[in-house]
Design goal:
- The complex is a heterodimer of chains A (166) and B (538).
- A two-stranded antiparallel sheet of chain A has the order 1-2.
- In chain A, helix 3 runs antiparallel to helix 5 and helix 3 packs antiparallel against helix 6.
- Chain A has six helices and two strands.
- Chain A has 166 residues and is mainly α.
- In chain A, a hairpin with a 2-residue loop joins strand 1 and strand 2.
- Chain A has one domain.
- Chain B is mainly α and 538 residues long.
- The longest helix of chain B is centred in the middle third of the chain and has 52 residues.
- Chain B has one domain: Hydantoin permease, CATH 1.10.4160.
- The chains are: A mainly alpha (166), B mainly alpha (538).
- At the A-B interface, helix 3, strand 2, helix 5 and helix 6 of A face helix 3, helix 5, helix 10, helix 11 and helix 13 of B.
- Chain A: It holds the Pfam family DUF485.
- Chain A: Keywords: Membrane, Transmembrane, Transmembrane helix.
- Chain A: InterPro entries: DUF485.
- Chain A: This is DUF485 domain-containing protein.
Chain lengths: 166, 538
């Protein structure tokens, strides 16, 4: 259940729609140790320093717009993942319970020896759980994590700009 | 059935003492510094995902889960298999649906999650009330079960006094663990427990299969014969009956378990101690893997108990079959008094004992944290309490909760209170689950909606439970000789879960209508904190 290949995929190799983001300076392991991306902060500091002299509110507004868009992308990515995984898990279980209750003949049908269809499906659900959890971890890492990282960076940046203004 | 030599008894006692000593030592050494709140509530955020996952699994697999699930499988076969599947699935659902936003939104307790957009004392008090009403029944059922279980294990004559002493001993230990160890100490204990539990279960399951030459068909055939039910053992309906209402009751119970068990505060509390989102995801993967493995093992053990012990002996010892695993280990050990029998029985008894201790300690801690953090620090002191004071209060509320639980358990020790487990799960599914899902995913949720969900869902579950078939009107009920049942089911989820969701929705609609400014403010707060909720951005 550990992902040995955690973070091995660079964000661009995922096949998911990528947010418009500044070049990232993440090392292969930086996510785990530095969840708020402070190490990329320093790299971005130079270009943004010159922005400070430009009419800042324009860039600030631009920033918040981008931030809102990023958040919306992240929200819908999360929602999609959540819906697919939850509905699949809950749906299959509800079907299983309803069949057990209202189609006892079908679920009692013997497959091999004493093993009935109902028992086999129950044990199968438990076994499939391992695969489902693995799939969830993998998909979340590909679809949600890069977006979340972008949002975090942008929040840190806008927060700093606001600080300069105030 | 439980006639074994005094040598076994001595071994079991020595094992218990060793377990208590070792875990107490670890609790004291791992205990938090005196004035560090984060340390007490979350344990420094320092656990690796594997360890945190094991701790979540340990909290999740309570003594009630282990013993009653095994018992239901042994006595009712198929119904028990479905229960094992729904138990595992509940944690999966928590992982898929809520674990990550919950970790981002929460700090120490459920009140922190719920109150993040709706500051105010009413929300904190409601969160605390629901936390208590979900954990206390669970505590009482396990403590009062501890009395009869320990007298059974140690083969003490079934005197009321002996049981009370057992309850008080287990209860006092539980208070010490919770008050001294805090989150970190109980996490260590849960890890030890889950390792022992899995190890012993693997051995017992392997011995069962070995007895039948690793042929599942033979086990099932013997279980059908041993249960005395024949082919009905492998069909739905032995547990609750086969009439239309009973079948609906069964389906409702399973859905309630799936929605309710994983939402209980003592489990969600462990999520806040993960360091970041990938860590919580990996922790949950480990936890789900562990729990699923255990559910597969408990299926084998329960079926083995039906096959090798037989339902006649199991129900003679306990009508709910909670001693079936212990009896199975006696049968598997071979000749009475032999070394193998002693070792196996002691191992299983030790596993049951540590499971019992750690699960009651975890629940006490959850209840005490909510009292100290939600009720004292935020509702009474309006968030102005000193960390040191809050920690002292947390330690003392552990004592208070524990004492209350001990008192209640000794009061009901002669009753059949298994229904309290169902009550706790029903409150989890009808009050906690709607409140958390709305609070995390619906920006239109308002304070009135939240209070309506928490109080309405919990009250609906409680009321229906009092007038259900599980409390009166049937021979297996709490009051078998009285009959005031109006609700013809054993669990209330079918009505109380929709009621909880509906109450939250209606309450929020009411706020939109009557207090538009307030509900706009709630929406603004939700949107403001959304970056934190979804991306852990500060």
């Amino acid at each position: 259940m550990t992902y040995a290949d955690e973070n091995r995929y660079p964000p661009s190799a995922t096949g998911w729609p990528l947010p418009h983001t500044a070049p990232q300076s993440y090392g292969p392991d930086s996510y785990g140790r530095d969840p708020y991306g402070y190490d990329s902060y320093g790299h971005d500091a130079a270009p943004y320093g010159s922005y400070g002299r430009a009419p800042w509110d324009q860039s600030y507004e631009h920033e918040t717009d981008r931030r809102r868009a990023d958040l919306a992308t992240l929200r819908s990515a999360y929602r999609l993942l959540r819906r697919i995984s939850t509905l699949t898990a809950l749906g299959s279980f509800v079907v299983y319970v309803v069949l057990s209750c209202y189609a006892p003949g079908l679920m009692g049908a013997k497959i091999t020896g004493e093993l009935s269809l109902g028992m086999a499906l129950g044990v199968l659900q438990l076994v499939v759980t391992f695969a489902a959890v693995f799939w969830y971890g993998r998909s979340a890492q590909r679809s949600v994590d890069p977006l979340a990282r972008t949002v975090r960076e942008r929040v840190a940046r806008t927060g700093r700009n606001a600080g300069v203004a105030g | 059935m439980n006639d074994f030599s005094s040598g076994t008894q001595a071994t079991v006692l020595i094992l218990f003492t060793t377990l208590v000593t070792v875990t107490l030592l670890m609790c004291v050494m791992a205990g938090p510094d005196r004035d560090d709140l984060t340390n007490f509530y979350t344990g420094y955020l320092s656990l690796t995902p594997l360890k945190n996952g094991l701790a979540i699994a340990g909290d999740y697999i309570s003594a009630a889960t282990v013993l009653s699930t095994a018992g239901i499988i042994a006595l009712a076969g198929y119904d028990g298999y479905v229960l094992a599947v729904s138990t595992a699935l509940s944690l999966v659902l928590l992982m898929f649906l809520m674990a990550e936003p919950l970790r981002n939104a929460g700090k120490f307790t459920m009140g922190d999650v719920l109150a993040r957009n709706m500051p105010g004392r009413a929300v904190r008090i409601a969160a605390c009330v629901v936390t208590l009403s979900a954990t206390l029944p669970f505590l009482v059922v396990q403590l009062s079960g501890a009395g009869s279980l320990l007298t059974f294990i140690l083969n003490i004559p079934h005197l009321a006094g002996a049981r009370t002493v057992c309850i008080v001993i287990v209860g006092s230990l539980m208070i010490i663990y919770a008050a001294i160890g805090g989150m970190r100490g109980t996490a260590l204990m849960q890890m030890i427990k889950i390792v022992l539990l899995l190890g012993t279960s693997v051995v017992v399951a392997a011995l069962v299969l070995n007895r039948f030459d690793w042929s599942p068909g033979d086990v099932l055939r013997a279980a059908q014969a041993g249960s005395g039910a024949g082919p009905a053992y492998l069909r739905q309906g032995l547990q609750l009956g086969t009439s239309a209402v009973d079948r609906l009751d069964f389906a409702s119970l399973q859905i309630t378990v799936v929605l309710g068990v994983a939402c209980l505060p003592h489990i969600t509390m462990r999520l806040y101690s993960a360091r970041d989102v990938p860590a919580v995801r990996r922790s949950m993967s480990w936890a789900v893997g562990t729990v699923t493995t255990f559910c597969l093992l408990v299926i084998i053990m329960g079926t083995g108990a039906a096959a090798l012990v037989g339902s006649r002996y199991i129900t003679a010892a306990d009508p709910h079959g909670r001693t079936s695993v212990l009896m199975l280990s006696q049968v598997l050990g071979g000749a009475r008094g032999s070394l193998g029998a002693t070792i196996l029985y002691s191992a299983v008894a030790g596993m049951v004992f540590i499971t019992l201790l750690s699960s009651v300690a975890g629940m006490t801690l959850a209840a005490a944290s909510s009292l100290a953090h939600d009720l004292f620090a935020h509702a009474a002191r309006r968030g102005q309490a000193e960390p040191r004071t809050e920690m002292t209060v947390a330690a003392w509320t552990s004592v208070a909760v524990g004492t209350l639980a001990i008192a209640l358990s000794t009061l009901v020790e002669n009753w059949d209170v298994a229904v309290l487990t169902t009550l706790a799960v029903c409150i989890g599914a009808s009050a906690v689950a709607p409140a958390l899902t709305y609070s995390l995913f619906w920006r239109g949720f308002t304070r009135t909606g939240l209070l309506a969900t928490l109080y309405g869902g919990a009250a609906c579950a409680l009321l229906l439970m009092v007038f259900s078939k599980a409390v009166s009107g049937t021979p297996a009920a709490v009051f078998p000789h009285a009959d005031f049942h109006l609700f013809p089911m054993q669990s209330t989820g079918l009505v109380s879960i929709p009621f909880g969701y509906l109450a939250g929705w209606l309450g929020s609609r009411l706020d939109h209508r009557r207090r538009a400014a307030d509900s706009r403010e709630h929406r603004r707060l939700y949107e403001e904190s959304e970056a934190r909720l979804l991306a852990a951005a500060e």
